Amino acid sequence: MTTWRDRMMPASFRGIGFFIDSDSVPVGRKGQLHEFPQRDEPYFESLGKQSQIHTMSAFLIGADCFEQRDKLLAALEAVGAGELVHPWLGRMQVQVGSCTMKHNRQNGGMVQLDLVFYPDQPLRFPTSTVNTARQVTQASEGLLDSALSRYQTVMSKVDAARINIQALRSALSGVFAVIQRQFSPFMTIYSDVTSLVHSLVNAPLALSTMFSSFLASFEGDSSNSSQSSGTDTVNYRATISEATQQAEAVSTINQVSQASGVDTGSTAQAAADLVQDSLLVKVALVVASMPIAATVVPISATPALDQQLILPVERAQVPVADDVIELRDTLSSAIWEASLKADPEHYLALNTLRQSLIRHLNAVAASGVRLVDIKVAEPLPALVLAYRRFGDSTRSAEVVQRNRVQHPGFISPGTLKVAQE
User: Fold this and answer.
1) Which burial class, exposed, middle or buried, applies to 80 when counting CB atoms under 10 A from its CB (0-12, 13-18, 19+)?
2) pLDDT one-digit tens code per residue, 269-315
3) Contacts of 117 (CB under 8 A, 6+ apart)
4) Could you tell me the residue ranges of all domains in the chain?
5) pLDDT-derived band at 369, boundaries 50, 70, 90
6) Where are the alpha helices (DSSP H) in 49-131?
7) Is 72 in contact with 113 (CB distance < 8 Å)?
């Protein structure tokens, strides 16, 4: 049977051994006790953990005690941190403090030492962190300026008298559908595709002015944030879903029909490019609203189910890395397709936005959790599965949505994908 004596280690510093009579080290937390007149209850203000200062009563003994002393003194006076082997606490890196050496005639052949060691903490220098969300916002502003300039340049060369109204309406049917879904405020002016066509023919710059005004006041997190205890909490799932839908819409209007004359084709393509670029700016602002998740402290104890019915578990929002990576790849592909038909100046604006989006989404994904496969051996309600897996019954909707479960009261046996947490 192993005893405490067997677990003790020979004391040493920088490889020079010595014996320890006793040692002490502060533990717990330091703080300030506040006492007030006419108050019976004092108030303790915690100031953090106690510094681990090791104070030891040590000695060297033997016929060669003076030689051992000189070696230990050299080790104690050396510059920098060294390894202390503590008999009861093990190995640690420490800095030497103010020590005392004693010689006593009555204790011949022994040198006594009072040793003080401080914990060696590496110096922490200020570090800068790249604001990837701000880079995305700046890149989107540059793309919008380039898009407006490109649109105005093309439309200034178009002869409105040569535009085939019927062909232009047919070419812009898909573009109008994107405007209807993604820029719904425009529907007060463009009730149908015919009104859009008439605007392009009679007042071509009105469309660029509307996009400029809309995006100047657009906030990517306005529809996906909820107030929680006075702070904004982003809904990652809703934001990623919205951004993915917009990224997929970008690819649907990459090219339009060019079969009805130069002026008609130029007008249709210029309008499609402007809508596409404006949608990229919008999705960039939505992505920029996704913050990098902070480090989450795990919940130490899971409340019982009946307690969760009264007071649901509050968890910090954390993105699922797999969803973020999928969004990154979808956006990157959509922007790359759009850049293939761009002039050099606009290509640079698109590529700058693509790189900034990749950097930001990589940072968001790195702060999230991955998806894992779990096997369900028996039919279970989603609520029970969420409680067993996460200790949080309110996350049943997440399980149902991610796995497209037909009924939350019955999850059939099989493999499910859930967040790794």
Assistant:
1) exposed
2) 999 999 999 999 999 999 999 998 876 545 545 566 566 566 665 66
3) 13, 53, 54, 56, 84, 94, 95, 96, 97
4) 4-119, 132-303+310-369, 370-421
5) confident
6) 65-77
7) yes
The radius of gyration of the chain's CA atoms, rounded to the nearest angstrom, is 34
For 38-50, what is the mean pLDDT? 87
Q: Give residue 171's Cα distance to chain centre.
A: 41
Please state which CATH class domain 4-119 belongs to. mainly beta
> Residue 63: pLDDT above 60?
yes
Dihedral (CA of 190, 192, 193, 199) sign:
negative
Q: What is the 3-state secondary structure (H, E, C) of 347-365?
A: HHHHHHHHHHHHHHHHHHH
- Go through the chain and tell me how many residues it has: 421
> Given the DSSP bridges, would you call strands 100-103 and 110-119 parallel, antiparallel or unpaired?
antiparallel
- Write the CA distances from 95 to 30, 87, 182, 409, integer angstroms: 21, 18, 62, 61
pLDDT at residue 207, as a whole number: 92
56 burial class (0-12, 13-18, 19+ CB within 10 angstroms)? buried
Q: How confident is the model at residue 183 (pLDDT cuts 50, 70, 90)?
A: very high
C-alpha 324/C-alpha 307 separation (Å) is: 33
At 56, list the tokens: 């030891």
Alpha carbons 324 and 132: distance in angstroms, whole number: 15
The structure's pTM equals 0.63
161 vs 33, 173, 190, 322, 332, CA distance in Å? Answer: 86, 21, 21, 51, 39
Closest CA to 341 of 283, 282, 276: 276
Identify the residue with better confidence: 391 or 262: 262
* Res. 96: pLDDT tops 90: yes
With bands split at pLDDT 50, 70 and 90, how would you rate the model's confidence at 74? very high
Instruction: Give the DSSP H or E segment for 402.
Output: helix 396-403
The predicted structure's pLDDT at residue 294:
74
In this structure, which amino acid lies at residue 9?
Answer: M
Phi-psi region for residue 338, left (φ > 0), alpha (ψ -120 to 50) or beta? alpha
Query: What is the C-alpha separation between 189 and 118, in angstroms, rounded?
Result: 73
The mean predicted confidence, pLDDT, of the chain is: 85
- The one-letter amino acid code at 362 reads N
Measure the CA–CA gap between 59 and 76, rounded to whole angstroms.
14
Which residues face 414 on adjacent strands? 376
